[in-house]
Amino acid sequence: MNPDRRTVSHDGPVLRASGLAKHFRMGGLGRSRKVLKAVDGVSLEIGRGETLGLVGESGSGKTTVGRTLIRLYPPTAGTVEFEGRDITRSSGARLRQDVRRRMSMVFQNPSTSLNPYMRLGEALTEPLVVHRIGDAAQRRSRVAEMLELVGLDTSMADRYPQELSGGQRQRIGIARALITDPSLIIADEPTASLDVSVQAQIVNLLGDLQKELGLAYLFITHDLALVRQISHRVAVMYLGRLMETAPADALFTEPLHPYSAVLASMHQDREHRIVPRGEIPSPMSPPSGCVFRTRCPIAREQCAEQVPQLREAAPGRSVACHFPGELKLDTAAASVRPEPAELTFTDVPPTTAPPRPVPAGSVPHTGEKE
Ligand SMILES: Nc1ncnc2c1ncn2[C@@H]1O[C@H](COP(=O)(O)OP(=O)(O)OP(=O)(O)O)[C@@H](O)[C@H]1O
Ligand code: SF4
Ligand SMILES: [Mg+2]
C-alpha cells in the first residue's frame, strides 16, 4: 500500500479537527473526582484520498481521537468539520446522515463487532437497514458487490463469523465499513491481530480500495515501519497531545520534535537510537508545560513553564516544541547519553524491518477467496 500521491486531492480537507479534547471523569466523589485528559487540544486535517497515520505509545489517546472524530464519544471541547459540515454537536438523524454513513471504522478485532449468531450477509446488510438504503433486492446486490470488492466469494454471505479465518473476518469488517459508501475510514490497528502474511494482504487491499474509491484513511497503528510505508502524512501523539504532523518521509528523515526523533531513530542501528528517559507519566497527572519534558533529552526550564502550542513549521507540517529541530537524528546519538530504560513503544521495529507487503495487485487472495 505505497501511498499514491495522485489519489490526494487538495479541494479542502475531508475532515478538520480543531482543539479537540476528550476528558474522562474518573472515580471518586465530588471534588475528589479526577479528570483524565485522554485527548487534549488535538488539531488535524485529513485530505480527500489521503492516508494520515496516527502513532504514539499505548495510552497516548489514538483510539480516543478516532472514536471522538466519528462521534462515538461527544467531544469535551473543540470542533470537528467533516465534508465541509460542522458535526461537533450533530445528533439523531443528522448524526446518522452526516457522520455515520460517510465515516466508518475498521477495528483491530473484527470478531468483537460481528454477532456470532448472525450470517455475514445479514451483518453486512445491517448498516443499509439502519441508513434506510435500498430495497431488499438492492441490498442483496450491494452485499455481493462488497464481498467481491474485498476479495471474498459471494457465498460467504451464508456463513457465520466463526467459520472464517482472521484475514477473512477483517475483509468482512472492511466490507461492512464500505457498504454505506464512506469517504473516510478510521482504521484502528486493523492488522495488529493478524499473521504477518495476512497483514500484507489486508494492507494491500486497503491501498487498492483507496485508489479505486478515493478513500481517506486515519490509520492508527503502533507499527512505525508500516506507518512510514502507507501514510502520506503522519501525526505523532504523546499523552493526549499532538507532538508533530509531517509528510511521512520528512518525519522519519528530518523530525522536528524530539519525540519524533526518538521514533525515527528506531529505524537506525541500536547504538544510534535515542532512548527517552524513564517511563511515560500517568495521564491522570501529566507534567506541567510540555508533557514530554520528563523524558525529553533536551528539556530545559521553559519547557516546564509553558505549554508548546502546535505551530505550522512548513506547509503540511506542524510541531509542538519550544526548540523544534534541535535534536537532530544524525548527531543525536553523540549528544545524548541514552539511559538503559525500556521503550514502552512495544511494537517498535527491531533493527531488521518486518517483511514488506507484496506490491499491490500481485497478491492472489489465496486462503481468502474460497
Ligand atoms: N472510556 C474510557 N474511560 C476512561 N478512560 C479511558 C476511556 N477510554 C480510554 N481511556 C484512557 O484514555 C487514555 C487514552 O486511551 P486510548 O485507548 O485512546 O489510547 P491508545 O493510544 O489508543 O492506546 P493503545 O495503543 O493501547 O490502543 C488512556 O489512559 C486510557 O486508559
Ligand atoms: S518543548 Fe521542551 S521538553 Fe518539550 S519536546 Fe520541546 S524541547 Fe523537549
Ligand atoms: Mg488504541
TrEMBL record:
Residues 24-264 form the ABC transporter domain. CDD domains: ABC_NikE_OppD_transporters. The keyword Nucleotide-binding applies. Residues 338-370 are annotated as: Disordered. One of its GO terms (biological process) is peptide transport. It comes from the Bacteria. GO terms for molecular function: ATP binding; ATP hydrolysis activity. Keywords: ATP-binding, Nucleotide-binding, Transport. InterPro entries: AAA+_ATPase, ABC_transp_ATP-bind, ABC_transporter-like_ATP-bd, ABC_transporter-like_CS, Oligopep_ABC_C, P-loop_NTPase. The keyword Nucleotide-binding applies. Belongs to the ABC transporter superfamily. This is Oligopeptide/dipeptide ABC transporter ATP-binding protein.
